[in-house]
Amino acid sequence: MNGMPDEADAVRAPVDLALSREKIDAIDARLIELFEDRMRIAADVAAYKRSKNLPVLDREREMRKIESAESSASDEFRQYMAPLFGFIMEMSRAYQHGLLADGNEIRVEADRIDSLPVGPKVACQGVTGAYSHIASTAFFPKGDLVFCDSWSKACDFLHTGEADYVVLPLENSTAGTVNRVYDLLVQRGLFVVASLSLRIDHALLAKDGCGIDDIREIFSHEQALRQCDGFISKLSDGVHATVCENTAMAAQRVAQDSRRDVAAIASPVCADLYGLSVIVDAIQDESDNFTRFICAACTPQMTEDADRSSFFLVLPHEPGSLHRVLARIAALGANLLKLESRPIPGKRFEFMFYVDIASVPGDGVFDDIVSQVAPLCDEFRYLGSYRELFR
How crowded is residue 176: how many other Cβ atoms within 10 Å of its Cβ? Predict the structure, then answer.
């Protein structure tokens, strides 16, 4: 109450900060020496495991080691033993994996190009005026565009040689991730070569003479409908929303429909393309509405200005598996830009992860991440290195 430190505080208060730090430095020097000795012995363990064809991970022994450390520690520091020894043993496993690789370790390479080509063949889902079309022309102003009626068919064009690249929507700042596209990247073995965050301004389009109170049905893509949910909810009772393949096809459908009580949510560009009028502009619920589009290819290609990489991970279904991966990425000095989880089909409550990091092949950190994170995963796949653009 008198502001004076109690007896416990007085005991713990360092008399001389410089002296305390000097003692810590001396202990750290001993820790480094002991850690290196431990790792050299781990090399002997790796050699034995090689001779007996044993796996690097011995989970039962690691659990016993942690339990022993916890029982040996004082009550004051017992809670720190599991994370400390867990990390030490992770480093040991990473070192052993490297020693046992025999040239079979995962290597990631990408064809280095100065920039994307100017006029390649590009596949995208939709029709003229769709946001995928707008994104495709942003990537390739002189590209030869091929329109498809689904994302899956657009990806097929890559494998048949009918397209050099495919442009796909990956996520929206309001409606979230387009999970199907993530799945297609993995299933089709595609690699991201560029990324674009495109500002999305939705407009309500209808035929000339149609007023907002006349509308009974609105057509659009499901993502666009979600992004404009607030606006739609304020319309007259009885207005029905119908999902279309994309926003431009919704505008096309309204233009071709004989009814005059239908409207589309689409880009204002579609009004001129399909002879419609803009009834209300900028109807999205969030003013900062962006959709991230990716440009993908069948082979990894990395432009000179690439600054981020993407990976697909399946982790062991056990406590701490995600923490180990994230801790390793942080310890290696890479900035985590995105972490997206997806359920694994057929496995209840088990997840796969998509990870973006601020690191690319050749920057000194990337190879360490690949070599040290891959052994922590049941499945590890590189999805490409690229530059994030904005428009």
Answer: 11
Structural tokens at position 46: 């790796």
pLDDT given at position 301: 95
The confidence score (pLDDT) of residue 105 equals: 56
- Per DSSP, helices labelled H in 105-206 are 131-139, 151-160, 179-187
DSSP 264: E
Which contiguous run of DSSP H or E holds residue 125?
A: strand 121-125
Query: Apex CA 99: angle with CA 94 and CA 101, to 5°?
Result: 90
The predicted-structure confidence for 163-176, as pLDDT tens digits, reads as follows 999 999 999 887 77
Residues 198, 202, 204: CA angle, nearest 5 degrees: 165
Length in residues, the chain: 391
pLDDT of residue 97: 80
Distance, in Å, from the CA atom of 50 to the CA atom of 52, rounded to the nearest integer, reads 5
Residue 40 burial (CB count, 10 A): 10
Q: For residue 221, what are its two tokens?
A: 């893509």
- What pLDDT score was predicted for residue 8? 52
The rounded radius of gyration (Å) of the Cα atoms in the chain is 28
Helix or strand or coil: residue 209? coil
CA distance 118 to 147: 18
- Calpha distance 352→317 (Å, rounded): 10
First to last CA, the chain: 60
Question: Quick one: CA dihedral 259, 260, 266, 272, positive or negative?
Answer: positive
Both tokens of residue 104? Answer: 């079979």
| Residue 165 contacts residue 124 (beta carbons within 8 Å) | no
Low-confidence spans in the chain with pLDDT less than 70 = 1-15, 101-106
Contact assessment for residue 105 and residue 375, using Cβ atoms and an 8 Å cutoff? no
214/251 Cα distance (integer angstroms): 17
In DSSP terms, 290 is beta-bridged to 199
For 336, the token pair is: 């985590």
Per-residue confidence (pLDDT) for residue 351, from 0 to 100? 85
Cα 289 from Cα 174, distance rounded (Å): 6
**Nearest to 281, CA basis, from 270, 295, 292, 296:** 270
SS3 content of the chain, % helix, strand, coil (to 5): 40, 25, 35
CA-CA distance, 173 to 131, in Å (whole number)?
15
Structure tokens given for 361: 């092949």
